[in-house]
Amino acid sequence: MTVCISDDVLRILLIGGECDALRESWGESFEELNAVVVPLKQEATGCSSDSPHLTIAAGISDAVFRELLEARQAEGCVGAFVILADDDGEIARSARAAGLAVLPKTSSLAQVLAAATLQSDRFYSRRIEQLRAEALERARTLEDARGKAEDSLRQLQAAQSQLLQSEKMASIGLLAAGVAHEINNPIGFIYSNMNTLRDYVVSLKEFFAACREIELPPPQQGKKDGVGVILDDLETLVAETIEGAERVKRIVTDLRSFSRAEDDKMTTADLNKGLESTINVCWNELKYRCKVAKEFGDIPALCCYPTKLNQVFMNLIINASHAMEKSGTVTVRTFQEGNEICVQISDDGCGIPPENLPRIFDPFFTTKPVGKGTGLGLSIAYNIIAEHDGRIDVQSEVGKGSTFTIRLPIRE
After folding, report:
1. DSSP state letter for 266
2. Predicted local distance difference test score (pLDDT) of residue 3
3. Is the pLDDT of residue 47 over 70?
4. Closest CA to 46 of 68, 75, 73
5. How far apart are CA 38 and CA 52, in angstroms?
6. In 3D, which of 83, 42, 36 has the Cα closest to residue 60?
7. Could you tell me which residues are beta bridge partners of residue 15?
8. In sequence order, what are the residues at sequence separation of 6 or more whose Cβ sits closer than 8 angstroms to the Cβ of residue 275?
9. 101-103 and 80-84: which strand pairing?
10. CATH classification (class only), 152-261
11. Which of 2, 14, 56, 254 is 20 to 30 Å apart from 380, CA to CA?
């Protein structure tokens, strides 16, 4: 028998020894269906595109029924399956439990087709509900994925903002380095000339001392002559000028060191000197707000990124000074603890409320007024210390102050 697989043909599989008699009883009604009877051997290939739309079983054994049922469930066949049985035997009970239609053997073809249609409707209703549930699950999965994507986007935006801030600081540092270079040249002249002038003053004093041995009218008692006053003042002025020039030179040197571009490789550095340099650079920001107490311990040199660490020190020291409502003291300590170098920056300012402590290292979090802070200082500091495999511990009490302790491992 040739099997037609076009969509406009109803494919029916008749199984069982009593199916031929049923087909004869249905007579012309069966022929009018424009149906093709599928041989049983077609089922051996499973549920393919030419699988039967309707399987009618009458007079089959329990073993054949179970084999057909397991094949349908394994292959996912969607065609209707109608069992014709007059008794309420094992096959009938199993068929009903599986959601199949069970009709008497005397049922007309119209009744069989109606039962098959109802069964198909129920199957497709269940399938639609299943697909709807799967669609909802996929929608929830997509929503979760969208949430994760938004979190990743926020983190990327935070990283981008930190990068922009770093670029801005690099630009400021480059500008400061240029200004420092321009200042350093005349300062060099002043420094050199002041030393020469000091030598000249000594020579002048010796000259005028020799001149005084010549007999001249005695000056008024208790008064110095004009030359003596000038010489005394000149010596003081020269000393103060040299001291000022040394201070300017030290500031310029520290500023150039602070603004220097960081190398890709770590270098060995003295953190005590780095702290001295940082305090010197930002002293103008500190001197009107607080006193700075330095308690530097004997610590070994550290393999690190010195410029980045100086940026961390600057952020923490300036934040500590801003915590002072009127005046106070910022204490900077260094010490070694085990295999770690510790830098501790303490203040006796207003302290940090407990509800804000978990968020102080979050990007853009700040308690300062609008325009007074970006909220990136501590976040950048945290990332720099993490880059050194270190950590920052914070202890704070409202009204008593805060202590930030940086712990950096000593690298072999």
Report:
1. -
2. 30
3. no
4. 75
5. 7
6. 83
7. 57
8. 294, 296, 313, 332, 334, 343
9. parallel
10. mainly alpha
11. 254
Residue count of the chain: 412
Phi, then psi, of 136 in degrees rounded to 5:
-65, -40
SS3 category, 270: coil
Q: How far apart are CA 278 and CA 285, in angstroms?
A: 11
Task: Quick: pLDDT tens for 119-155.
Answer: 777 777 877 888 899 999 999 999 999 989 888 888 8
Lowest mean pLDDT among 140-154, 210-224, 398-412: 210-224
Q: What is the CATH number of domain 263-412?
A: 3.30.565.10
Q: Report how far residue 142's alpha carbon sits from residue 65's, in angstroms, rounded to the nearest whole number.
A: 43
And the tokens for 411? 């690298």
Task: Kindly provide the b/e burial profile for residues 180-212, where b requires at least 16 CB atoms within 10 angstroms of the residue's own CB.
Answer: beebbeebeebbeebeebeeebeeebeeeeeee
Amino acid residing at 28: E
d(CA 356, CA 68): 68
| Strands lying side by side in the sheet with 80-84 | 35-37, 10-15, 54-58, 80-84, 101-103
Please identify which residue in the block is written with the tokens 């599928």: 38
Q: What is the DSSP letter of 355?
A: T
275: closest CA among 325, 320, 328? 320
381 phi/psi in degrees, rounded to 5 = -60, -45
Say if residues 250 and 277 touch (Cβ distance below 8 Å). Answer: no
Q: Domain residue spans in the chain?
A: 10-107, 152-261, 263-412
Please name the residue ranges forming H helices in 225-373. 226-259, 271-281, 283-286, 306-322
Name residue, tokens 């010195």. Answer: 306
> With contact defined as beta carbons under 8 Å apart, do 76 and 67 qualify?
no
**Token pair of 20 as six digits:** 């031929």
**Under CATH, what is the fold of the domain 10-107?**
Rossmann fold (3.40.50)
CA distances 177 to 19, 25, 32, Å, are: 101, 106, 99
Q: Would you state the structure tokens that stand for residue 95, as one six-digit string? A: 């068929």
pTM metric for this prediction: 0.48
Q: Residue 130 has what pLDDT?
A: 86
DSSP-assigned letters across all residues of 92-161 = HHHHHHTT-EEE-TT--HHHHHHHHHHHHHHHHHHHHHHHHHHHHHHHHHHHHHHHHHHHHHHHHHHHHH
